[in-house]
Design brief:
Number of domains: 1
CATH class: Alpha Beta
Radius of gyration: 12 Å
Largest sheet: 3 strands, mixed
CATH topology: GMP Synthetase, Chain A, domain 3
CATH architecture: 2-Layer Sandwich
Oligomer: single chain
Distance between the termini: 33 Å
CATH superfamily: BolA-like
Order of helices and strands: HEEHHE
Strand order of the largest sheet: 1-2-3
Shape: globular
Structural class: alpha+beta
Strand content: 15-25%
Number of helices: 3
Mean pLDDT: 89
């Protein structure tokens, strides 16, 4: 699964407007560690743990079959909206 596919899968998993940016993590395990920034109004008022669970739910079984590690940053709106 390439990075664009992961982004699309995350974005498709949310009813509200969602933006996902996925990249390879920098470090000793670059090939199998990913970073994602996910912005969605669906996160408003939701705990950080529940926000991350929402992203994992959007990814479904890919989290256990195709993605080894995913570092998440989630927020309810972009910095431009603040």
């Amino acid at each position: 699964m390439d990075l664009a596919d992961i982004e699309a899968r995350i974005e498709a998993g949310f009813e509200a407007d969602c933006s996902a940016t996925v990249s390879r993590a920098r470090g000793p395990h670059d090939d199998d560690h990913l970073e994602a920034v996910v912005v969605s109004p669906a996160f408003e008022g939701v705990s950080l743990v529940d926000q991350h669970d929402m992203v994992y739910d959007a990814l479904g079984d890919a989290m256990t079959t195709e993605i080894h590690a995913l570092e998440l940053t989630t927020r309810p709106r972009s910095d431009r909206d603040a």
